[in-house]
Design brief:
5-stranded mixed beta sheet, alpha+beta, 11 strands
Length: 329
C-alpha cells in the first residue's frame, strides 16, 4: 500500500512536505479505508512542519485551525487538512483541548486519537505505522478506543456518537470496554452542539445499518434531548429507502423522538412530521375526482390528508376504486 493510491492532490502535498525536509504521513480515516479496500474520502496529513512552515510551503493554504496546528490546502482533487504533530492538554468543555504543543513525534500524535482504526499512518515506503493495533482491530471488526476509553470520552464527548456511527458504517461492533465507557460517560454528550449530534445521528441513519442508532438510545447518549421510555424496535429502518426523510421519520415514529429538538431545516421537519404531504400529489384520486364525489373546500383537503395517510401504510391501495371505498368507511 503506497502513497500513490491516494488522490493526486494528497500525493503532491506529501511530496512537497518531505522534499522540504519534514516528516509527513497520511493518517486516520484514509489509511483505514485503504486497508479495507475502500476509496479514501478526505485525506488528512500529519507532519513535523509547524503551521507557519506549512503556510509558507503552500501559497493557497488557509489557516483553518492555526491554534491547533491545522492548515487546509486546496488542491485540484480536494482539500487536504495538514496538521502538525501535537500534544493536547486539558479539556474543560469535554470537546476541545485547552492547550496544544507541537514538541512531539508521530507516535504521541497518534496516541491522542479516538479509535485504533483511526490511529494508523503510512510512510513513503508503504510501511504501516500502527502502534495501537488498529490493523488487528480492522480484522476483528471492532471499534476500540486508543488507550483508556474513559479518558478519550472525557477529552471529547462527540467521540461516543462517532464510535456508534463508525460501527454502523463499517459493519463493526463496539469493543466491550469502549461500549462500557460510553454508558458511563453518556451524560457528557450534553456539552456537544446539537448541530454535531444531528450530523452523527444522520450519518448513522443513512448507513448500511441504520438500526445501530438504537445504541445511542440504549446507552443514554441522547437522553438530554428526549426521555426515551421502553424498548423501540428499529429493525425496520434498514428496509426503508436510504433517504433522509424516510430514515428520520422511521426513527422518530419508532421512538417518539421529536425532530424539533435538533436544528433541522424546514423541509426535513415537514417531511418527518407530515409525511402525507409528499404522497398527496401521487394519489389516484385528484381534487377534481373528489369534487365529483360531492366534496368541496376544506373537505377536499381533509380527504386528501386522510387518503395519503392510508396510502403511506398501504401503498397497494393507491388506486381509484380502493380510495373511494376508504372515503365511504
Amino acid at each position: 500500500m503506497m502513497w500513490r493510491e491516494l488522490h493526486t492532490g494528497a500525493v503532491e502535498c506529501l511530496k512537497t512536505l518531505t522534499e522540504a525536509g519534514y516528516a509527513a504521513y497520511p493518517v486516520g480515516g484514509c489509511v483505514r479505508d485503504l486497508l479495507l479496500g475502500r476509496e479514501p474520502g478526505d485525506v488528512d496529513i500529519c507532519t513535523s512542519a509547524l503551521p507557519e512552515q506549512v503556510m509558507t510551503l503552500f501559497s493557497r493554504a488557509v489557516p483553518t485551525g492555526l491554534q491547533h496546528g491545522t492548515v487546509t490546502v486546496p488542491t485540484r482533487t480536494g482539500n487536504i487538512e495538514i496538521t502538525t504533530f501535537r500534544r493536547e492538554e486539558g479539556y474543560a468543555d469535554s470537546r476541545h483541548p485547552d492547550g496544544v504543543s507541537f514538541d512531539v513525534g508521530l507516535r504521541e500524535d497518534l496516541s491522542r486519537r479516538d479509535f485504533t482504526v483511526n490511529a494508523m499512518a503510512l510512510d513513503r515506503e508503504g510501511q504501516m505505522i500502527d502502534p495501537f493495533g488498529g490493523r488487528e482491530d480492522l480484522g476483528r471488526r471492532l471499534i476500540r478506543c486508543v488507550g483508556d476509553p474513559d479518558r478519550r470520552f472525557l477529552e471529547d464527548a462527540l467521540r461516543m456518537l462517532r464510535g456508534v456511527r463508525f460501527a454502523a458504517q463499517l459493519g463493526f461492533a463496539l469493543e466491550e470496554e469502549t461500549a462500557g465507557a460510553m454508558g458511563r460517560n453518556a451524560f457528557r454528550v450534553e456539552r456537544v452542539s446539537r448541530e454535531r449530534i444531528k450530523a452523527e445521528m444522520e450519518k448513522t441513519l443513512l448507513s448500511p445499518r441504520p438500526q445501530m442508532i438504537g445504541l445511542m438510545v440504549e446507552m443514554g447518549l441522547l437522553n438530554h434531548l428526549y426521555p426515551f421510555s421502553g424498548h423501540a424496535d428499529l429493525s425496520g429502518l434498514g428496509e426503508l429507502p436510504p433517504d433522509r426523510e424516510d430514515r428520520w421519520r422511521g426513527f422518530c415514529v419508532a421512538t417518539g423522538f421529536p425532530i424539533t429538538v435538533l436544528p433541522v431545516e424546514r423541509k426535513l421537519r415537514r417531511g418527518v412530521e407530515h409525511p402525507e404531504e409528499a404522497v398527496i400529489p401521487t394519489l389516484a384520486l385528484k381534487p377534481r375526482d373528489l369534487m365529483a364525489l360531492g366534496l368541496e373546500g376544506p373537505a377536499i383537503s381533509a380527504a386528501q390528508k386522510r387518503l395519503a395517510l392510508h396510502v403511506l401504510e398501504h401503498p397497494e391501495d393507491n388506486v381509484a376504486d380502493k380510495l373511494k371505498r376508504q372515503l365511504s368507511i
